[in-house]
Design goal:
The protein has 144 residues and is mainly alpha-helical. The protein has a domain at 44-143. The chain is 61% helix and 0% strand. The chain has helices at residues 44-58, 65-82, 89-143. α1 (44-58) packs antiparallel against α2, α1 (44-58) packs parallel to α3 (89-143) and α2 (65-82) packs antiparallel against α3. Bound molecules: zinc ion (ZN). Residues 3, 5-6, 8, 17, 19-20, 22 line the site of zinc ion.
């Protein structure tokens, strides 16, 4: 046979090329197993992260819910991104972005809608309280 590095003739009983020293492959050795790239694992948590991200954006105007879904979305998405050799990494990245975006929207909604509503409610309550006080004073003058 011939050396597959330098091309010199090697007598069949030699194990090393006399010209360059390259080991001769053993014809009886099993062919090297070429392993196919491992199939990527399904990534359920990444998909869960995406779903939570979508829910966060959809429910961003509701009080409470977006905080729960946003937190879960961020946790699931990061777990999905961190999962090695897994599919649906894009879904996990989208889930992370949507969760952050939805959470930001819900915080904005809280400040823009909920807090003015509470302020208005408190102002109304104060008004009612002063009304009751006035009525009380009127009643007192009647009692006397
Ligand atoms: Zn050789």
């Amino acid at each position: 046979m011939y050396c597959n590095k330098c091309g010199s003739y090697i007598p069949s009983m030699r194990k090393v090329c006399s010209n360059c020293g390259t080991p001769v492959p053993d014809p009886n050795a099993p062919a090297p197993v070429v392993e196919p790239p491992p199939e990527k694992r399904p990534n359920g948590i990444a998909v869960a992260g995406l779903v939570m991200g979508i829910l966060t954006v959809v429910f961003c105007l509701l009080p409470g819910i977006p905080f729960l879904t946003g937190l879960l979305g961020i946790i699931f998405s990061i777990a999905g991104i961190a999962k090695k050799n897994a599919r649906s990494k894009g879904a996990a990245v989208a889930g992370l972005l949507l969760s952050i975006f939805g959470s930001a929207l819900s915080v904005f909604a809280l400040f823009a809608i909920t807090i003015p509503g509470i302020t208005k409610y408190l102002a109304k309550a104060k008004e009612a309280e002063s009304y009751v006080r006035t009525m009380g004073a009127v009643f007192k003058t009647w009692i006397r």
